[in-house]
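Troubleshooting: if your tokenizer reports a length mismatch, compare your output against this known-good record of 189 residues.
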Amino acid sequence: MIGLRRNTVELQAHQEEWEAQARRTMERLRGILGGAVQDIAHVGSTAVPAIMAKPIIDIAVAAENFQDILAHQEALKAEGFFYRPNAQTSICDQLLLACGSYYQGTGETQTHFIHVVLQDSQAWEDYIRFRDYLNGHPEAARAYETLKLSLAREAPVDPGREKYLEGKRAFIQEILERARREAPGPEPV
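Known-good structure output:
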């Protein structure tokens, strides 16, 4: 199953369909954005098979500049990728696109978040580094899963998933610091 009702936090066991869905989504984005995409990767917890995750696919897109992506805004919208200019006001170094019936105005489900960042930026490296670290360190992945399960139990209904996101922030920073000490940069995907 892909998708989760907006403002809810529910984790599911990893599903192979998430990988297939991520591949299809990345292919669709490459088809729409063409040369505006410098790199693209499946990131977030659905890209870590060892842990439970919200059934929302996260994709990171590296671009040379944001205007190249925004120039495709109408084509993206026609294909179900909706630009969310005010969705992440605390993150000024990326654009957010989202998919699901909530954005189409036909329901409450969110299925994908597309994080557009600048090529070779810290944000790009962090998305890749965090995913790779969890995939390479099962104990860290389990600790992350335990934290997320606790946060989901505390606030299964969480407007904007703000408590959930804030509850993960320190752990994510700690893992990124560890990963930076162990490896100077992420491997290309």
